[in-house]
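Students often ask why we bother encoding 3D structure as a string. The short answer is that it lets us treat folding as translation between two languages. Here is a chain of 341 residues written in the first language.
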Amino acid sequence: MQTSRKITLLLFVIFIFSSLLYCQDTIIDTLNSITYLEACVFYNTQWNFFGGGVLIPGETSLAVGDGYDNYIGGDYFNRSFFSFPIQNTPEDHEIITVSFYVNLVNFCGNGEIGIWPIWDLNNQQINYPCIVDHVDYGNTFELEDFFCPVLHPNVCQIDSTLITGYCQLDITDSYLWDHESGRTKSQYRFKFPVDTDYDGLIDQIIIASSYTSEFFRPFVKIVYESVNEVENDEIIPTVLLSVYPNPFNPSSGSSRSKHTGRSPETTISFSILEDQKIDLSIYNLKGQKVKTFYKELIEAGDHQILWNGKDANNRNVPSGIYFFKLKTKDNNYVKKMILLN
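And here it is in the second language, the structure alphabet:
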């Protein structure tokens, strides 16, 4: 009790002698793929020609991988391309994360649907990941852009551990590079590290295009945060102290994972200098509320809560970035947290 009073008194003194308050705010923006720059191109190795190109309405998927052309003969391989506009950053905000969401419709390995692509090389069967390169093919797409300049190779991957449905790819660094370089678009190419294994069998992944339902389209999610300098001569009665540990691993099932060293729970700590009503909740990257811990009047003092990676229905949430948001009568406070399963 003595320690709690000392902490509360210390916070009170700090705020009396402070005339500036830094408040955090989060903005989440969603970008759709630029349809006239969304393309799937194949290259026939035997006849040395390109096919495909920019998608047209009605083409609901793109392919990445290899196969055999039964009409004219020859092995071929596909690459797919996506482009997103570079947005102006909201005033007094900065980019925190940029995630590229693609919907994996299906896989095909050695001609068998539902199997991850199998590359038959040197008497071995290898499940290579699909590589995503940060590229530049400009304001139009031509077939020759199949071999467009690569700005940053292998910025992220899709591997055989994933199942069909949306997968989240971190493109923060490449998007920031485009933004800071003054570019107007951020562009990506999907390919495998091996063009073809010449076995005459289809090895591909299928990705939903922008011409499919809105529930399956590719998109980019950008999270902005700000630290606003606000003049304030009054004492603000709430401060968010910490989220620890961060990141954390709720799937370890023990007090601390012996493999990762991460705790199965994370603790959020905050202090209230006067009785008031607050709202403390967790949100995911889509801005959806995951769980609410407080939405009530609480007493002044120090408070701690534990989160074990479960939502309001006691279901485990997936790995990713989450945000603790503390709403008070005066301000909102946000802390980013990373959950690793």
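Translate back mentally: DSSP finds two helices and 22 strands in the chain. Keep this in mind for the problem set.
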